[in-house]
C-alpha cells in the first residue's frame, strides 16, 4: 500500500499477531493491541533517513518497505524482535509494494513497471536483482495479488488484471473510472477500487465487469472532497471502509448480493481521517491528520471505539513525533487530469481556423513549365 513519503502517520496492512503497521517519514512501527509493555510498540530497525513511500507485510513474520531513495528493505521476525535482513536497489521510486503468493516481493514504480524480487533463504533474503514482470504506460498507483492473479491500477483510469508471475498474460481490464485510481484491493470474488472521480467501484473478478458504484460524498452530510484515498476490506466480514480526502468521517459499505450498501460512518476525532486498516481479528484502526491513532471493534451492529491498553495507552509519549512532525498529507489532486478548456479560447479559435483552411478548396495551380513560357 502506498504511503506517499509524507510526514504523516499512515496505517498499513495488518501483521500476523493481530497487529498493524504504521509509517511516518523514515519510520516503520508495529502496533500490537496487548498489555505486554515490551511488545505493544516495536520500531523496525533501519539507519536510513529517506522517507518510506510504500510498505507491506505477508502476515507471517516478514515486512517490506520501499523508500524515497529507491531502496527495498526486508525485515523478518526473529522470535522477539524485527531484524533487517537485506536492502536492494530499484531503478525507479516505488509507488506500491507487496508480498506475492509465492513469497517473492513485488514492487510497482513511477515508470509503470512491476518488479519481482525472488525470495532467498538465509542472510541473503532477496535476489540481488529484480525482474520486470509487467508494465503500464503510466504510473501505477496501487496493486494487489492473490492466488496467481495480480491487479494493477494506474494514473490513466485503468485497472489491469494479469497472471502472476507471468504478467504478460493479460486476463482483462476493469474500465469505467474517469480519474486516476487511488487504490485497489481484492475481496473474495470481487475487486474494490477508489478514484479521484469520487467513486468506489465493485468489479467481478471473473469477468472484470462493473457490478456496482457508490459515491461516498452523497452518503455523508456536508460538502467534502470528491477525491477518495483508499478502501480497505475487513477480513472477517463483507465490510469495506473508505477514506475520503479531507473528511473526518470514515465511510462504511457492505457487499451484499454484488451491491455496495451504505452502512454508516465512523468519526474518530473530528479531524480529517488520513488512513485506515483492518487487523486480522477484524478490528478497525484509523489515523487522523493530527497524528491520532484509534481502534474500533464491531459490536451490536456497529463499530465502537476501544481504549488502548498497556504501551498503546501512552502511544504519543513513546512516539512523540506522531504529533510534532506532521507536515500534511500528500496532495492526490496532482495526479488528476489537466483540463485545458478554461482560458484557452484563443488557442481553440486559431486551431479551428487552421482546420477550416485545410477544408477550403485548393486554388488552381499553374505548372512550372507554363510560368516559364
Low-confidence segments, given as residue ranges, are: 367-373
The biggest sheet amounts to:
4 strands, antiparallel
Radius of gyration: 24 Å
**Order of strands across the biggest sheet?**
1-2-3-4
- Provide the residue-averaged pLDDT: 88
Shape: globular
Provide structural commentary:
The structure is a single chain. This protein is mainly beta. The chain is built from six helices and 28 strands. It has helices spanning 216-219, 310-313, 315-318, 321-324, 345-359, 368-372, and strands at residues 10-14, 20-24, 27-31, 41-43, 52-57, 62-67, 71-78, 81-89, 94-99, 105-109, 113-117, 131-135, 140-146, 149-154, 159-163, 170-174, 181-187, 190-195, 200-204, 210-214, 228-233, 239-244, 250-256, 259-266, 273-278, 284-288, 293-299, 302-305. The strands form seven sheets. The chain has a four-stranded antiparallel sheet, with no helix packed on it. It has a four-stranded antiparallel sheet with strand order 5-6-7-8, with no helix packed on it. A hairpin with a 6-residue loop joins strand 15 and strand 16. Residues 367-373 have low confidence and may be disordered.
